[in-house]
Amino acid sequence: MFVIGLTGGIASGKSTVSKILAQAGAHIIDADKIAHDVVMPNQLAWQKIVSHFGMSIILENGQLDRAALGATVFSNPAQRKWLEELIHPFVRAAIEKEIQVWNAEKKEIVVLDIPLLYEAGWDTLADETWVVSVDTATQLKRLVHRDRLSLMQAQKRIDSQMPLTEKVKRADYVIDNMFDLAKTREQVLKRWNQIRKR
Fold first, then answer.
1. N or C: which end of the chain has fewer CB within 10 A?
2. CA distances from 106 to 7, 57, 60, 177 (A)
């Protein structure tokens, strides 16, 4: 089994690349989905978050108010660090479990779709790392539009991650997502087919 670690900056187009890989036959392990699952109401991580931040970040249905929590942690590096240190062990354990399952089922290629692949040190789980890249101005514009944030809010979220330029330096394969979808797909499938022919 070959494991690809897929990452990028926020609003760089990583989800688009993940979908292309899924359509091509890759088995996707989505760290964002796992992170969402581990903070469902009354889970241990959820309880610790509520104890730490209080009920102001909880919706009427018991779910985390992600907008409120995001506003808190992205404006306070210490709080963001606390939250990541709480959640990351739960997420990593779930990722490792899924890798074991797919390996036992003899899957050919598995993709770890992980926004903080390098920041969390989880690139060691992959045989090869891919980074989806755009320039800073494009990233900022897409994020403002996608999440309806102010320029300042969007910039804070971008600044909270490792710079995309640094991720690009560390990548085994870089997908330039500054063009149209067809060009992105072409880059993805080129490397996908090379891996499959190994």
1. C
2. 24, 42, 43, 31
Rama region for 45: left / alpha / beta (φ>0; ψ in -120 to 50; rest): alpha
Report H helices in the chain: 14-24, 31-38, 44-53, 66-73, 77-104, 136-147, 151-159, 164-170, 181-196
Rounded distance, CA 87 to CA 176, Å? 30
| Sign of the CA dihedral with 142 first, then 176, 137, and 152 last | positive
At residue 32, the 3 state secondary structure works out as: helix
Could you give the percent of the chain with pLDDT greater than 70? 100
pLDDT averaged over the chain? Answer: 95
pLDDT score for 160: 87
* Residue matched to tokens 């036992």: 104
